[in-house]
Write a structure and sequence with these properties.
Elements: E1 5-6, H1 9-14, H2 23-30, E2 37-38, H3 39-42, H4 51-56, E3 85-89, E4 92-95, H5 123-135, E5 141-144, H6 154-165, E6 172-177, H7 179-182, H8 189-195, E7 201-206, H9 215-226, E8 231-236, H10 245-257, E9 261-266, H11 281-291, E10 302-307, E11 310-313
Parallel strand pairs: 4-5, 5-6, 6-7, 7-8, 8-9, 9-10
Antiparallel strand pairs: 1-2, 3-4, 10-11
Helix pairs in contact: 6-8, 10-11
């Protein structure tokens, strides 16, 4: 069951997440980009400028596009052979069954496409996606993303998993989501049953600050763990949200406390209107260097940059290698 969600300027103002004077700006942003803040996340926002508020409350700065920002910053569109499929690597493909999310991040790299109007793939589009996957036997892993696949009903998710598992060369499934921290009430026995797959589905949780892991989120993650679902964590380095070594340490250690293995720390993708979140790579490398040796190795994710050419590791080198090594 979904929880109440703030979507309009009036609702944000009534909830105390924006002053009445911000109404015109909020409405201008909403005319271009989707807004949704579920109650569990809204309850964590102490101030619009705090690390939770910055991620989700619309800001007129989003309507200012810097010269280097692009509507499709990692080149998904050019790599989409049929609707809902992105094929960047030989052995993997993305499947985007929906473009809707329980919460809309103000820095989303797919912000020009996601939203409640994006809907779900039609039955004909899903069939075309399944046919494409079946015809490409080099693809051994399918990564469900979107949008957020966990806003789909357990029945619909189960049907998608059944079709994917029927393709002989697909041996691994992964799913990216914010639901456990954004709308943990969706983690029901029916959903857990749908996610109970063999080989196991890997669930990748998107979270950027330790405070996102409230009591409800922790309970949802505990339920996922007890169901035997492997959990990985993915974060984005964001100015004002997690751009300090102490904040990142707290985030990654909190993930581990909740049974989530920190997996990737992404450099911000240059989507339109996201410049206020940008942290230079040199600064990101310094943060990773500051964390190394002060945090358990399995708590430290890989720092990466996504681009149309694929992922590039941004890890700082702690040593200079001699010619003989």
């Amino acid at each position: 069951m979904a929880t109440p969600t703030l979507r309009t300027a009036d609702q944000l103002i009534e909830a105390g997440l924006a002053p009445p004077s911000a109404r015109a700006g909020l409405e201008a942003v909403a005319a271009r980009y989707a807004t949704a803040i579920p109650a569990p996340l809204a309850a964590l926002i102490g101030d619009p400028a705090d690390p939770i508020g910055l991620q989700f409350i619309p800001d007129p700065a989003e309507l200012e596009t810097a010269p280097h920002e692009r509507a499709d910053p990692i080149g998904d569109d050019a790599l989409s052979p049929v609707p809902g499929i992105v094929h960047r690597y030989p052995d993997r493909a993305l499947l985007k069954p929906t473009l809707a999310c329980p919460v809309y991040c103000r820095f989303c790299f797919r912000r020009e496409h996601v939203g409640p109007e994006g809907g779900v793939l039609s039955e004909a589009e899903l069939e075309a996606a399944f046919r494409w996957l079946a015809d490409h036997d080099a693809v051994s892993e399918v990564i469900l993303t979107g949008g957020d696949p966990l806003i789909l009903s357990p029945r619909r998710l189960g049907a998608i998993f059944t079709r994917l598992r029927a393709i002989p060369h697909i041996s691994r499934l992964r799913l990216h989501t914010r639901v456990p921290v954004a709308d943990p009430a969706r983690i029901t026995p029916a959903l857990l049953a749908a996610l109970d797959l063999d080989p196991p589905l890997f669930l990748v949780l998107h979270a950027n600050h330790a405070r996102e892991f409230g009591a409800e989120a922790r309970a949802g993650l505990r339920a996922l763990r007890r169901a035997g679902i492997p959990l990985l964590g993915q974060s984005v380095l964001l100015r004002g949200v997690n751009d300090s070594a102490d904040t990142l340490r707290a985030l990654f250690e909190t993930m581990l406390e909740c049974g989530v293995k920190p997996y990737y720390l992404h450099q911000l993708d240059p989507a339109p209107g996201t410049a206020r979140f940008h942290v230079p790579i040199v600064e990101g490398r310094a943060l990773i260097a500051a964390l190394r040796g002060t945090i358990s190795g399995h708590a430290l994710p890989t720092y990466i940059l996504d681009s149309p050419a694929g992922k590039t590791t941004l890890e700082p080198s702690p040593v200079s290698l001699s010619a003989g090594l």
